[in-house]
Design goal:
This protein is of the alpha/beta class. Helices cover about 30% and strands about 20% of the residues. Strands 1-8-2-3-7-4-6-5-9-10-11 form an eleven-stranded mixed β-sheet, sandwiched between helices. Strands 14-13-15-12-16 form a five-stranded parallel β-sheet. α1 crosses α5. The longest helix is centred in the last third of the chain and has 17 residues. The structure holds threonylcarbamoyladenylate (TXA) and magnesium ion (MG). The site of threonylcarbamoyladenylate has 29 residues, from β5, β6 and β10.
Length: about 350
Amino acid sequence: MQTEVIKVTPENLATAAEQAGALLRDGEVVGIPTETVYGLAANAFDETAVSKIFKAKGRPQDNPLIVHIAKFEELEALVTEVPEAAKQLAEAFWPGPLTMILPKSDKIPDAVCAGLQTVAIRCPSHPVAHAVIEKAGVPLAAPSANLSGSPSPTNAKYVYDDMNGKIPLILDGGQSAVGVESTVVTLALDRPRVLRPGGVTVEQLRAVLHEVDVDEAVVKPLKKGAVAASPGMKYKHYAPKAEITILKGSFEQFKAYVEAKNAEEHFVLCFEGEEKDFPHAVTYGRCGDGLSEANRLFDALRELDEQGAKTVFARCPSENEVGLAVYNRLLRAAAFRVVEL
Ligand code: TXA
Ligand code: MG
């Protein structure tokens, strides 16, 4: 299959979105930009179309997808009930990088939710994503547009690298603004619980709902035999080919540790301004600035592979606000290898 890439501008937005919409109505899969990362979209009501997503990504069948809608009003048909908390969160954070999990209605096929009784719903803010959902005229099931296990793509080139020949169309809407995937919060338990941290922070959620738990799996490996609240959290994830180890401590401690290891042989993943101290370095944002770290992390992981890195020592992000999302992704990329300095 030939994969077409269309660069979307304000001038061609309507026609490009219509071209994508027509393919989606026809049961095809299309790569689309969102403000978090790029998505691999299909008609959420069409089980055959949804199965093509799993095939293109090589995604395990038991990992459910997020359903994307253009307006809050579309939520009602997809869930059994819209609780007050969902209204408050939507009011505060939609359209935007927040996904809510709710008990699903019969309209959602089992393939989307991997057999669970709940469905994850998000209303993205990216103008291209919004236009494509409207033109398709149906909700779109869309995971991140990477091959399963690889870092999520934040631009059309990385989608093309992973999906060339597998899907008919990618819309290029520029670099994703957030850079890590949406915050996933479940409203299907007794209390709201964050299953995956993202662009909307736990602090922001607590300002609206007051009581919000954070799932243990966010910063800890799943215990053997435990059932993941969010199936995506149990898989090796976001991983480049290189072996990453996170070093927790000050920059001075980090530098001393790497130098003792023979810096020539290793790559470092460090913050801006620190790279001059190492022969092989890739940076991911500014130290202590979670937003800039989120923005750069997945690209930095792909750049390490492009540069042929085999072993990488990574600086540890802060664990508050958006930094928690960065830490959560980097931990998985490092298969939870952390050294306390
Ligand atoms: O920002 C995002 O959320 C991007 C863009 C494209 O919207 N999408 C994304 O999708 O990251 P994906 O499939 O890569 O990650 C979805 C996560 C997975 O960890 C999955 O297990 C979890 O959400 N998930 C989906 N439905 C769920 C459900 N019903 N219950 C629990 N977890 C669910
Ligand atoms: Mg993903």
